[in-house]
């Protein structure tokens, strides 16, 4: 089998998860190409070398350009902060490397547009690109997508989606780069609001027409860890963002992203109500999909808890017997598998950079609305959200 | 013990529930005044007499004025449709009768203002008035109110409230007066959105500063039951309404009221996130309050399910042992009790008509915002939401 | 409509609940006979009179014989402790009164046999009798019964039933008559184990063949409230009882009754597994029935939460709209309704005293097994569990 | 770092899971010794080689002896059916290899005794052995163990444990070796009943004194897949097993293992009730532990859902942020880590073969009781369940 050399850029949380996926994907799924964990790039040489040793990468570098341009690298996997995405992705694509880029695709619409342009040019040459809206590949959500597509809940009329975390609810929680607009682009909105935006559109197969938003920053500054006593970092991003929305097809949506929901650890929740039924999901119980079939007789209808661990469920045939649930990182393994197989097949993987750009436009529209008395703000449609 | 003659106006769903409350309240709680089920008023003589016989009212009339002006009536309990509230309530107050009026207080802000004026004049003469935001007296929500007031979740920063029903999700569901703006004022917004608006403000003890809303009518007309084949009633109210909101104290809110959430029967849900914890409730599990105490150590913190059936919980000492839960109508029994005791004590019951008017202003602001590109719309503060 | 005079014996917890049912049943359901709350009997004159005034009984007495023999009494409703059941019920039946007797039917098999004999003699004369296994009339459980009978879960192979309470888990909880074998017959076994025994047999429509049991008394003595400091009452009943069982048709059962399950307030739980599906119930969420349809395709099968509040569900047409749940006492209202209607129709209500005797035999077999190294102990079949 | 060569015996379900653990453990935890996936042994050469290639083992053999005796192998990991455990484990221990053996330790008490004897001899020479009761290392259950040990629920008085699966509920489900007593030893009892037996004892820190059991085989024969039409395999093991139990310290237990609980996929459930609180767990929601603190005031006490994903929770520091849950196979990674670290530290890992033998004695006692009218059957205590 042919090798596929991977260069990983970044080895923090996301880098660790991606490493886990690259290490496991072939054994779990059996692939058409054999991914090799060739090199990891970081900013600090010593720490990057330690990460390489621990995570199983053959080489380490503190120079991402070097990693990107190696001959034995065919895939560049970008897990560095958002402000570096555009430069790295464009360089990699131009060097003919397939690119998997973490979300949000970029920190600004302009960057994302440049990335899409590069991806389109590269596509002409058979070079693939993908943005890491990984939750699409959580089996329960992949099943939801299938069920909507099969018409199991009819025409979707309402969507309520929230992504609730709580790591900032304590006013003394420390400052991090994620609270700095220059590095992170936005706060809860971009970090986790991007996920529910992509998911909602993906699940119902329709795009947002416009949004009306509000954002809030509850705590203005926070202590900087490691800095002299009393040093505080200014919080320049939103702590929470809420928006109502209209889909092109008429569905009504409510969205919320927050880091202040005390007790909600990673509650990515989405509920779809259609003319023939409903679907509901909460990532804190990620192996379950709730389905209400409105065509059942009244007396026996009810939200049913589908334990999404059957061999017939998306991705599950490769894993364990029913009831032996999957965890967070499995979505990344599925993503790695689908990306590799798309490369092998010479097709464009989903979601492409266009989807990443589109989400960026939604985030920008939410911010624009919030800055303009919450006025309804339309989102410019991409020519195509799907790959052409 | 002194009698308290009650006249009930209306004997449909709400009238039945109120009858149940008047029948039971004295035996359950032991009251300072003894309510008598004196007379029920309806629009059809025969049906009203049948209702009186069935529900236990001594007299029946198809002339509400007659009921209101009887000497043996001290309380007028208004359960008729919203477009009749103002006239009846004002007449009753002017006749010196204590008035309990179902929500929403009226169909328009102007009517509600007139009712408040009448209530204030009557209050000078010791005549009491109350609006039926009954969910405040669901024990789990009464407990939530106490816990917020005691500071158990600190300063509340976020509120998410939804009231989800599904009786219209089928496009063939029949037309009713509730879908006619002239009778009902508005749709899901006024009928059930009013409840979550009042509850959110009541629970956190703060008022809404402004809202940004969207409404939707998914099905424009529906078959009229009993009418000739093909007759359709035009739906002139919202099927669903969503709004984001800001509270005067800075908290951020998301609200949704809908009749299209297939599978959600009466899911009044509210979650409050504070600096020190969270509270969550769903009326479909009405005997439970979920509490997250953020001051617990990380390792043992978790949302706890308080089964609100202990003798120390609000209203529970009068009922059954722990775990032997209450049902929907018990909130009305609690309301009747508190109203009677306020009359006996010569104090003003909560919530007064001012609270009803305020909610009316919020509903009007949501509609105004929805009609104006969702622009943020401020709500004029009442001079006092509490009774003076 | 003809009156039906009721005499209530006992006005503690059960007496209060039954009073609530008698007060409401006619208004809720509309009955063929009109129950009158004629007289309540207690042991203390003053307290009984106070109870009568509060609960709405026309007369009071401290002499139950007097109540039972009144001409204006047609129904005797026995809510006194178990050691008084036999004497009162037999006297009432012989006096030609219809008898509703709380469970357990008696404290011993011998007493229960005498009661069944009296009931059979009375039945000849058109006098009705019923034992208060009220949970059969919880709508979710009545629905479960219907679904099993319709074959929705196929042949039932396994039953797991538990009734978990926690009011004794604290070793300092006070002594009560319920811990005295002479008054109560047994402990958790008879008090709550009797309910799950009856329910399991009722739901699957089969009788227990035999049991293998163990019982435990974790706290030997407890402080007597109101007695001089240091006075302790000896606990002569079980704190918890567990047994495995075999049904006549081959199904396997596991049962547990306990007052020591800290945090479980009134968790009557029962799950049935059949060849075609499963049903599960927990009284702490009494408006829900969980149903697994094994004939659904693998990919969309799941336990569904039926919110048992639809007009088509048992007893629900008389109550509130979907999602507006019922509470604990409603089962007693349903029981009163079915008892009155059976009297009116001249039919025997279910469950009759035979069912009460049968449960008594099961309890005795559990105790016999526990006393005999848990040896499997067969239960003598009644000639008929159903009324003849 | 020093290498640790591993030989895996068996590459079916368990072999795959163990492979996943060996592949990941070092990257996740950073270990004191570096495990190498040296060789996998199977019964069919071609299939074993394919498995080696897929799962990442350097060599393959159809001769387990060869694998066991290689110089570059220090660890033998036994994942073959139960009837092969004793021979392989004893040979490996005698060859000086550390042994990790899947549960149940053996198919009979006699085999298990021989294995313990071998393990004890080997232990003298510093050779380590461990039995795979992996669920002990599910973080939520490891946390439960810590909380019991810290006294958070006081003295444990009751245990209810069940392991519910449904893969046999369909009478047409195919025959497998797991239904053949000669290969599998017993049915649900040994396969999954062994897990809850070990867990219950482990969690409360006490051993079972005796049991009273019943077993059932609901379907006597099943179609043999791949065999000529009409060939049926005789089911010679239990489909379901239930037993009540007494612990040495007086606690009362109820246990159930079944493969017929339609809709329950892998519902390993355990609840402990103590004098000061309760703990509850269900593997279908494996990242959650429910805790009831009986020392909380009545008004705010409730079962709390601890999402066991905090860095302070057992094993979690090595994984993902809060709320990003783990899956089934992670327990095996934890097991591999603890086994390697015990080898490195020269200490005996838990649970040792003694624990495996003890569980075997419990299973045998359940079967003996079931065969003897469910009579209470005592379990001979090991001299030590803990390693000496």
TrEMBL record, chains A, B, C, D:
Residues 143-279 form the GFO/IDH/MocA-like oxidoreductase domain. Residues 5-124 form the Gfo/Idh/MocA-like oxidoreductase N-terminal domain. It holds the Pfam family GFO_IDH_MocA. It comes from the Bacteria. The keyword Oxidoreductase applies. It comes from Streptomyces hainanensis. Keywords: Oxidoreductase. InterPro entries: Gfo/Idh/MocA-like_OxRdtase_N, Gfo/Idh/MocA_oxidrdct_glycsds, GFO_IDH_MocA-like_dom, NAD(P)-bd_dom_sf. This is Gfo/Idh/MocA family oxidoreductase. GO terms for molecular function: nucleotide binding; oxidoreductase activity. The keyword Protease does not apply.
């Amino acid at each position: 089998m042919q090798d596929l050399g991977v260069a990983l850029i970044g080895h923090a949380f996301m880098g660790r998860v991606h490493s886990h996926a690259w290490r496991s994907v072939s054994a779990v799924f059996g692939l058409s190409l054999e991914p090799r964990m060739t090199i990891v790039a970081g900013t600090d040489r010593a720490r990057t070398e330690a990460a390489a040793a621990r995570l199983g990468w053959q080489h380490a570098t503190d120079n991402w350009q070097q990693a990107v341009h190696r001959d034995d690298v065919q895939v560049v996997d970008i897990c560095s902060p958002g402000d570096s995405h555009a430069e790295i992705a464009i360089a990699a694509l131009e060097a003919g490397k397939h690119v998997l880029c973490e979300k949000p695709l970029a920190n600004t619409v302009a960057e994302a547009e440049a990335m899409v342009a590069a991806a389109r040019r590269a596509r002409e040459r058979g070079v693939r690109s993908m943005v890491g809206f990984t939750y699409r590949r959580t089996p329960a959500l992949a099943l939801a997508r299938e069920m909507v597509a099969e018409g199991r809940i009819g025409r979707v009329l309402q969507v309520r989606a929230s992504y609730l975390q709580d790591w900032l609810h304590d006013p003394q929680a420390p400052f991090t780069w994620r609270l700095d607009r220059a590095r992170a682009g936005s706060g809860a909105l971009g970090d986790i609001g991007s996920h529910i935006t992509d998911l909602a559109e993906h699940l119902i197969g329709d795009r947002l027409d416009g949004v009306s938003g509000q954002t809030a920053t509850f705590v203005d500054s926070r202590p900087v860890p490691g800095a002299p006593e009393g040093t505080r970092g200014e919080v320049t991003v939103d702590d929470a963002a809420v928006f109502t929305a209209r889909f092109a097809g008429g569905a009504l949506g409510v969205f919320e992203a927050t880091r202040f929901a005390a007790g909600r650890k990673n509650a990515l929740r989405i509920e779809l109500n259609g003319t023939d039924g409903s679907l509901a999901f909460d990532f804190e119980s990620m192996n379950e999909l709730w389905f209400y079939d409105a065509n059942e007789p009244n007396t026996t209808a009810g939200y049913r808890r589908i334990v999404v661990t059957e061999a017939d469920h998306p991705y599950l045939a490769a894993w364990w017997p029913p009831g032996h649930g999957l965890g967070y990182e499995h979505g990344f393994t599925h993503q790695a598998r689908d990306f590799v197989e798309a490369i092998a097949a010479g097709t464009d993987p989903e979601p492409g950079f266009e989807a990443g750009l589109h989400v960026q436009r939604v985030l920008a529209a939410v911010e624009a609305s919030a800055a303009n008395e919450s006025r309804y703000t339309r989102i410019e449609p991409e020519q195509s959200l799907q790959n052409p």
